[in-house]
Design a protein that fits this description.
Shape: globular
Number of strands: 8
Strand content: 25-35%
Helix content: 25-40%
Number of helices: 6
Distance between the termini: 38 Å
Structural class: alpha+beta
Length: about 230
């Protein structure tokens, strides 16, 4: 018997880095941020809604020019973030999400910088986009840990993480200083071993038969997850 217990052996092949893919769904798609194509739509989606940036490290933005400049910096190849636009069925960009702090050797990546304009919030596309990204992370890129972190005071983000099947792990106290204020950070994760039942729950929720003729859900995602 080993006196010093060890963790389970893991295949050491690194995961892949996020790339310029388009992930198509029934309600829309997730595609690499293209400022020239998506910038104007994204500004229209967030303009006048300064509350979207309350817990974000950037924003709100005074005008379209400053917002587009911010987007251009995020879209650079040397950016530590890999941003995706969330597109409706007409190709109109309604929101953003980013892969953050990818660590292929450890097969860990984080989803963050999620900004959904009001037209995207509480829609099937809003949930489908998170399903498409998670499926990409686990099945294509082969990560084993998918992280979600947010300001511990951001109740909406914490509810979203739990609804989407992320597991709460704890609070990192005085983790960051954001816009001159303390941020305690709530950590959540989803593991590759947890993905198959999460995937089944997403697909059950997204199925056509889960929505009535008015587009109203019959089962909530939380019910599918449980």
């Amino acid at each position: 018997m080993n006196e010093f217990p060890l963790g389970a052996e893991v295949v050491a092949t690194p995961a892949e880095r996020p790339g310029p893919v388009t992930l198509a769904g029934r309600h829309g798609a997730v595609a690499r941020l293209d400022v020239a194509r998506h910038g104007g739509d994204l500004w229209a989606a967030v303009c006048g809604h300064d509350e979207l940036w309350t817990y974000m490290p950037s924003g709100p933005f005074a005008d379209e020019a400053s917002f587009l400049q911010w987007l251009k910096l995020r879209a650079r190849d040397d950016s530590p973030y890999y941003f995706y636009s969330i597109l409706d069925q007409n190709g109109r960009a309604l929101g953003l999400a980013a892969m953050i702090d990818a660590r292929p050797a450890n097969r860990v990546v984080e989803i963050g910088h999620i900004v959904y304009g009001p037209a995207l919030q509480r829609t099937a596309l809003a949930t489908e986009a998170q399903y498409l990204l998670a499926r990409y992370v686990f099945e294509t890129l082969r990560y084993r840990r998918y992280e979600w972190k947010c300001n511990a005071l951001n109740a909406a983000s914490r509810r979203a993480a739990e609804r989407l099947g992320f597991v709460f792990e704890g609070i990192f106290r005085q983790h960051m200083i954001v816009k001159g204020r303390n941020r305690d950070t709530a950590w959540y994760s989803m593991l590759d071993s947890e993905w198959p039942p999460r995937k089944a729950a997403f697909e059950r929720w997204l199925a056509r038969e889960n929505f009535d003729s008015q587009g109203r859900q019959k089962l909530r995602l939380e019910q599918c997850m449980s």
